[in-house]
Amino acid sequence: MTDTLQQRWNLDTVFPGGSASPQFQDFLDALTADIEQFALDLGTKNASKDVNEWVSMIEKVQNLADRQREAGAFVSCLEAADMKDRGAKALRGRISQQSAQLNSVFTTFDALLTNLPESMFAALLQDERLQTVGFGLEERRRRAKERLHPDQEQLISALMVDGYHGWSQLYDTVVGRMTLSLDREGQQTNLSMGQAHNKLSAPDKAVRDEVFSKWEQAWASEEDIFGDTINHLAGFRLAVYKRRGWDSVLKEPLDINRMDETTLSTMWDVINQNKHHFVDYLKTKARLLRLDKLGWQDVEAPIGSTSRLVPYEEARAFIVSQFREFSPDMAAFADSCFENRWIESEDRPGKRPGGFCTSFPVNEQTRVFTTYSGTIGNVATLAHELGHAYHQHVMRGLPRFAQSYAMNVAETASTFAEMVVADASLRFAKDKDERISLLDDKLRRSVAMFMNIHARFLFETQFYEERKQGLVSVQRLNELMENAQKQAYDGALGSYHPRFWASKLHFYITGTPFYNFPYTFGYLFSTGIYAKARQVGPAFANQYVALLRDTASMRVEDLAAKHLGVNLRGPEFWQEAIDTLLTDVSEFMELTK
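Below the sequence we write its predicted structure tokens.
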């Protein structure tokens, strides 16, 4: 039987002792020394024309990147599990400094790579030892040519530690101290913001309304700090972009996600053309909940019998069994994550909101983070994060430059896993009412991807344009957010969440700008892959793994053409993917007449 301990992950198999781990301190000391030594070595290389020397340098820089990722993942796990862990906060400062040092090394390395004569670079790409990282090397060389002189880029990296990344860490600190109090039968309960967020999807309308009212008030109480934070993060980015001569704020996120702006525009255009179907779903849901219109807090409310709580062990068994229907290897891996305590799922105060999956490339381990309270949505989130974990699992053995896949394709495996579990739940529905509630659960995810994520994209796009002219006030941020939500939801809601810009962690993540549209891309891309899997059957499992292993070795348009034979720049693929989701809308509407 599952007990509380088993819902807490075990980090001691990575570094024993948590934030006080002496082994981790030794690891950081050794990494710092190696980064400094490699920086000195690079300073003597100039543009070496020795292929063997270059192969050695490329291997070393990837080794350093793996170890830095290991360290960052460990500290992220400590911070997420206990946002009051002061030792973890101190380590974050050291990790940020170390990351800046490594970025400086990368800048020097990339400059050397860029200065290589074409003939020498071609010789490197032909070397059999570098066959798996050719795309990564070409990408680094191209990107370096689009940036400033190495000295200026190194200065930017150094200033990021206490500027750009510092603002992001301030956000985490403020959220970590926030709580939300609920009064139940005369007893007051203090919830972390992560726990409170789960209550926003409570079956009881009165609970949702109370939590949402206090939720909005809680973020309003700190909105001045959050307003400063988001303004300074955007201001830093814009200042760097201007110095590099980049006109579009989408240049960096599109490049990071290895996709064309044409692909992004086409995806949003097709979604907009199909939104009316999901507006009809939201209107029907309002009727079922006996509301004139859904409020923001009602969109995630469950309908019917799936409001029952699912024990953690039952969720584990169901997820593993359904993964097995697609791939025994995927099922075995997921089961091992539960067995080895690689999952932090306990519902307790002090944890960070949301969920994530992170990898430890040196130890070849993975960790999944979520707060599991037993809802059907929690089961879906667990499957989602295990999909991420499987993606990392199948990439093992590849060098770092061939493992660094972008966020948009990272969301492919996670959404695919979520779909496997959601469809299985539908197949096992006991009756009409349960089928309706399960369809509602699936459609909520479609609404999240097509409307909620779109609102984030619209908000950031407009915010960045206004930020170019100066600081944007809190009042204006609220207006921009509410206007974006009204546009994205096509006016389907009766009330909105104007301080969503403050409550959503994604706006404050410094590693990836525009942390929004990749979710929608991954959702629809994986929908197309899932349709292919159902068509081909079990034989598709190997093809699926081959696609995942290529996710860091080509642009997404080429990935789709190679493994699926489709064109992402045109509307056909996107429409076909949405069409598979519209069958859920049609059935939901038919069953609820």
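The two ends are 42 Å apart (CA to CA).
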